[in-house]
Design a protein that fits this description.
This protein is mainly alpha-helical. Helix content is 62%, strand content 3%. Strand 1, helix 20 and strand 2 form a beta-alpha-beta unit. The protein is globular, with a radius of gyration of 31 Å.
Length: 746
């Protein structure tokens, strides 16, 4: 009996199967003791990543969709049913709605019901921290921590902007959990495979990216198939799983097949299962309107802010070098590499996938490097040994950086610097959502004992909060659930902001009660036209939103609107409508004043816009946009010398920004420095030959001074237009009118 126990004990000390002879010998050697400081540094670094993940998500609500998600969660909680048809709009009411995010919506509503916005935000921060603990913790090797901590840090910062409270956060968690469970299975924990179908069941009912589950599982299954003895490839594959290849294929295959029917276990059945694939096809289509319209489907190299873009590039470079070094050492991990490569491709294709790539990369490489027994990444032992001596110094540097970054986040400087303008803490920002505007609309007296039913034409920025503030009495024209409305409807909706006649026809069709806009800077021409329309009356505006109500003459029989227009009509000729919010300060107040100034200027009140820009510039001295805006207001007031000093500062700081150069040129014209104006625009046009706005303004200046070169300049503008008529369609009328006006003989 004793001999049997001794034999078992000796067997337990044998190295895992699949290791090289060198690695087996390395395992048999007595372990070397690491300095205590190195061990402490390794775990401090791991804790630092998890804490940073928590802090980066501990900020005010910012996602434009969160409030219609919250409303839907409330409906599910109250009715015990998931909506099957549209209930929020007056345009496609009753149309099929596949709500694949219902479980997330129910979770956040329950949190809100019992703990308000604070509970929701804390949940998001905790889930983010747990996700990164799953990414790093299980495969974390305290002896070889430096590279993976460096990779994890840049990955976390690259994807931080999308790792916030939204349904996608659950996808990050489920994906990290799936990789964690598969890693545990490869370590010999067979029981974890029984948890994977349950994970899928939760994923299917939480967020539409659940097909990722099958992709990852299929890739690891294919790796086990490659390890089958009859293929003779197992000697090239570096994996230390004790599970025989045939058994692994059998177990993973059963797990995959048993998961397939669970995709149908959702409130919408088969339609819910195929919906993500249909949506993906529409978005990824080269001709698809959604893919062009939605910013998150654009290139990350063009749309990421400078800091996040540099972190994203760092993730690509570091992980690529790691795979290259592993390949040079003839260590091939096909499943991990293929998953990494596919997510890299997806991230390059669309901005929204950067966070997925940033999460998957350290999750896979931390486990790969943990099993790389001889060295970390470097191919030569001598180089590795020298680098290892510097590891504590590098780790201390990373720790200092993480501490500084944590302080930057807690003080909001990080969010200000990257231009997201989140605010550390809990709550909902008035500069992110139309909170005050919705409260104003709700405060207007309606029919006795009930809120007034309203049909509201709105933009996508405001629609989600309007649903939360006014459902079921308020119904919207459209909202961020674009898949419910369809591509043709979305195209038509966008065209309404450029075509006033089309908007009036739509109003005639649906009889809007109110126009409620929050994307102010996207629709300035539309707001200007609406302000001058006799059918609409301005009743409210702040730095976030603007509200027009139907004029009584165009709203026959609507006593609510008649009374509201008489009571709340704004006459801007008498001054500003009211005081600023007391909840704002710093850059948030500056942004509020800037937006108010822009609206006032567009509506024809530069004298009211001037103090808004002046006060905003006091809060953020030297801000280019504010210098330009202040210069623009002074220009409109005829104070050209003062205007040039401010516009000149903005143009000097950013000489390639076209609006700065154009306003500076017209200021020079007003000051009698026409040659200087022409020279500046010529230089801008030489650097940007297809910039039609520069071409048109240069032609106008030529006309102003009655230069014979005006006609040739307009002809050049025509050439630019003809090179891409669709992109330059807004300039077509002005160009053709000018050419007709300047024809010889006229």
């Amino acid at each position: 009996m004793a001999k049997k126990k001794a034999k078992t004990k000796n067997l337990s000390k044998q190295p895992p199967a699949g290791l090289s002879a060198a690695e087996s010998n390395l395992l048999k050697q007595p372990p070397t003791r690491r300095p205590q400081r190195d061990k402490i540094l390794s775990w401090l670094c791991l804790s630092g990543i998890i804490i940073l993940a928590f802090l980066l998500n501990l900020h005010t609500l910012t996602d434009t969709d969160i409030f219609w998600h919250l409303t839907t969660g409330q409906i599910i909680w109250t009715t015990h049913q998931v909506p099957q048809k549209d209930i929020y709009s007056f345009t496609v009411a009753g149309k099929e709605w596949i709500d694949s995010q219902w479980l997330f919506q129910l979770i956040i509503y329950v949190l809100y019901r019992f703990s308000g916005y604070s509970g929701m935000i804390l949940f998001g921060a905790l889930l983010s921290a747990i996700t990164w603990a799953l990414v790093l913790g299980p495969g974390y090797n305290g002896k070889k921590y430096f590279f993976i901590i460096l990779l994890a840090l840049v990955s976390l910062l690259a994807g931080a902007d999308r790792m916030k409270l939204r349904p996608e956060l659950l996808t990050f968690f489920f994906l990290a959990l799936e990789i964690f469970l598969l890693d545990k299975y490869q370590q010999g924990k067979k029981y974890v495979l029984s948890l994977l179908p349950l994970l899928l069941l939760l994923w299917v009912n939480s967020e539409g990216l659940w097909p990722i589950y099958f992709f990852v599982l299929a890739v690891f299954l294919c790796e086990d198939i490659l390890r089958l003895p009859r293929l003779g490839l197992s000697r090239y594959l570096k994996r230390s799983s004790p599970e025989p290849a045939r058994s692994a294929v059998w177990r993973l295959g059963i797990c995959f097949l048993s998961s397939l029917p669970l995709a149908l276990v959702n409130p919408h059945g088969y339609r819910g299962a195929v919906f993500p694939l249909q949506l993906l096809r529409e978005i990824s289509s080269a001709e698809g309107f959604f893919g062009k319209m939605i910013g998150e489907f654009q290139s990350p190299f063009l749309f990421l802010d400078g800091f996040s873009r540099s972190m994203y590039i760092a993730v690509i470079v570091l992980s690529s070098l790691c795979w290259l070094m592993l390949l040079l050492r003839r260590k091939v991990y096909p499943a991990a590499f293929l998953v990494w490569a596919v997510f890299l491709y997806l991230s390059i294709s669309a901005l929204r996938n950067v966070a997925l790539f940033a999460l998957v990369t350290p999750a896979l490489l931390s486990k790969v490097l943990a099993g790389n027994l001889a060295e970390e990444v470097l191919p030569r032992k001598r180089v590795f040994a020298r680098a290892a001596r510097l590891r504590p110094l590098g780790a201390a540097g990373i720790l200092i950086f993480m501490i500084g970054l944590g302080a930057e986040i807690a003080s909001n400087r990080f969010f200000i610097r990257n231009k997201t303008f989140y605010r550390f803490g809990v709550g909902a920002l008035e500069t992110e959502y139309p909170i005050r505007a919705a409260q104003f609309l709700k405060s207007i007296p309606g029919a006795p004992g009930q809120r007034e039913n309203l049909k509201i034409f709105t933009d996508l920025d405001a629609a989600g909060y309007i649903i939360w503030a006014g459902y079921p009495e308020w119904k919207v024209y459209t909202d961020p659930r674009l898949e419910v409305y369809g591509e043709e409807f979305a195209k038509h909706f966008v065209s309404l902001f450029q075509d006033w006649a089309a908007f009036e026809a739509e109003d005639l069709k649906y009889n809007f009660d109110a126009v409620f806009l929050s994307g102010l800077l996207k629709g300035m021409g539309f707001i200007e036209t609406m302000y001058s329309s006799p059918n609409w009356t301005l009743v409210y505006f702040d730095g976030q939103s603007i509200i027009f109500l139907k004029h009584p003459t165009a709203a026959a029989g609507r006593s609510f609107l008649e009374n509201a227009v008489r009571t709340y009509r704004l006459d801007l000729s008498r001054g500003l409508p009211g005081p600023l919010s007391q909840n704002l300060g710093g850059p948030w107040l500056a942004g509020e004043r800037k937006n108010r100034g822009i609206i006032l200027g567009v509506l024809g009140y530069p004298q009211l816009a001037l103090p808004e820009f002046t006060e905003a510039l006091k809060i953020i001295p030297g801000d280019n946009d504010l210098e330009y805006s202040l210069g623009w207001a002074l220009f409109k007031l005829g104070r050209y010398e003062e205007a040039r000093s401010h516009v000149g500062k903005a143009a000097e700081a950013d000489p390639d920004f076209i609006p700065y150069r154009i306003l500076l040129a017209w200021d020079d014209v007003k000051l009698g420095q026409t040659e200087l104006a022409i020279q500046g625009l010529r230089e801008a046009l030489e650097k940007n030959p297809m910039e039609i706005s520069v071409c048109i303004n240069l032609a106008k200046i030529y006309e102003t001074i009655k230069s014979p070169g005006a006609l040739d300049q307009w002809r050049y503008c025509l050439e630019i237009y003809q090179s891409n008529p669709q992109a330059f369609s807004a300039s077509a009328g002005e160009i053709f009118q000018a050419l007709q006006r300047l024809q010889p003989g006229k």
